[in-house]
Amino acid sequence: MSTLKTKTTQTVKQDDKIIAPPLKLRDALVMSVLTLLVLLMAFGSKGYSVMSFQGATSWFAIPDLTLPAAATSWGLGIAAALFTAYAWKITLDRKPVAGWILGLVALFFVLSFLVWTVAGKTESVMPVVSLLVGGLTLAVPLIFGSLSGVICERSGVINIAIEGQLLFGAFMGCAVASIAGNAYVGLLGSLFAGALVGVLLALFTIKFRTDHIIVGVVLNMLVLGLTSFLFSTVLKQHPEWNAPMPLGKIPLPLLKDIPVIGPVFFNQSILVYLAYLAVIGLQFAIFNTRWGLRTRACGEHPKAADTVGIKVNKLRWMNVIAASALAGLGGAFFTLGQSLAFAKDMTAGNGFIALAAMILGRWNPRGALGAALLFGFATNLASVMQSVGSPLPAEFMLMLPYAVTVLAVAGFVGAVRAPAAEGKPYPA
After folding, report:
1. What is the pLDDT averaged over residues 65-69?
2. How many of the other CB atoms lie within 10 Å of CB of 166?
3. Among residues 50, 220, 227, 246, which one has the fewest Cβ atoms lying within 10 Å of its Cβ?
């Protein structure tokens, strides 16, 4: 048998036969579908579309941008078609499509969708700044929840209980803040609530080696039942313990007035700034510190980690509790972050969307951030489209964030590999 030789064209010659790499059509097909949708919206676009930049900066007023809907949509459609054709050429040459190409076509689709939504409606404008601000705000619990999942699964523990951690964090955050009369004290209550759920998760998965999926589902049901019972009894009898306690925004001087970017990123509550720090800190810690190396070792090959002196189960315990506390902090968004009193099941499945964001982000904090922002933007877009009178049915608007979650995970994740030892107990 002749030796294997890899050529620059990524083909392999073995026994005088040329073996080409497999043809991967997924990205090109997704881009084709997006391009087709853009062209269809171009056919249905009439009149003008008005984009409002109200609140973009306090330094000067940015006038509304009036665009010819059809011409703009056709321009975006032609650009998307050109990039899609280039992607097909790359695909047929059996080369991978660069992520930025797919991202550009997706951006063209979103822009075309916004133009089409308000096309020909002189009484409706697309509020660009509030759309972006709301998208980032709604992504906060997803960011914290997905980061919790990243830490747990990198350690080898599957965290299906993110929904319960968010819900209990919302409950305790509101109750503690109301009793203490301080929203910032409520954040500590949210941290404690998430950590408490994490203790139960670690106890049953690490100590008793119970199936991780079953434990997560049971914990979600436990927290849902417990918070519903306490809401119907304790909080109903003591409404002063369930008062809205707003965190309030903390505008950063100068930065908050950068046009468009400032009000989106630098005029937010402390929860948003903590989310920034959490993503940056974990991205560095997981891939550049001794703790991160040990955590990844416990999730990939715990036996090898044990042989070099790492106490696998101890590290898993610590990581699961810390990660759960992080998810509990994300739960504070639903009450303290939105200035709302606690209500039954108010997290509404965001924990499972956070789990999808973790998978879409490939167990990477930076990727999880991008996925969470995508889902947050989709959720806020559904609300904005209802307010501007979208031609789509209201039922479609309600399902939009969940549909985006399913399509993103099914269409863009592909063959990703989870940590090899996740869900597998390790002997004490």
Report:
1. 91
2. 36
3. 246
CA distance 104 to 355: 25
Beta carbons of 130 and 124 less than 8 angstroms apart: no
Question: How would you classify residue 309: left for phi > 0, otherwise alpha for psi between -120 and 50, otherwise beta?
Answer: left
Q: Is 210 left (phi over 0), alpha (psi -120 to 50) or beta?
A: beta
Q: Starting at the edge strand that comes first in sequence, how are the strands of the sheet with 126-127 ordered?
A: 65-68, 48-52, 126-127
Nearest to 219 by CA among 324, 350, 335: 324
Residue type, 169: G
DSSP reduced 3-state for 129: helix
The pLDDT value given to residue 413: 60
Whether the CB-CB separation of 5 and 16 falls below 8 Å is answered with no
Q: Which domains does the chain have, with CATH numbers?
A: 26-124 (no CATH), 129-412 (1.10.3470)
3 state SS of 258? coil
Name which of 377, 369, 329 is nearest 146 in CA terms: 369
Amino acid at position 318, single letter: M
* Residues 163, 331 contacting (CB under 8 angstroms): no
293: amino acid identity, one letter: L
**Helix, strand and coil percent figures for the chain, each rounded to 5:** 65, 5, 30
Q: What is the pLDDT of residues 247-257, one digit of tens each?
A: 989 999 989 98
SS3 at position 121:
coil
pLDDT at residue 10 in the model: 47
Using alpha carbons, select from 164, 84, 176 the residue that is nearest to residue 331. 164
Q: Where are the alpha helices (DSSP H) in 156-207?
A: 162-180, 183-202
Report the C-alpha gap between 130 and 54 in whole angstroms.
8
CA angle centred on 363, ends 362 and 369, rounded to 5°: 85
**Any residues with CB less than 8 A from the CB of 40 and at least 6 apart, and which?**
none
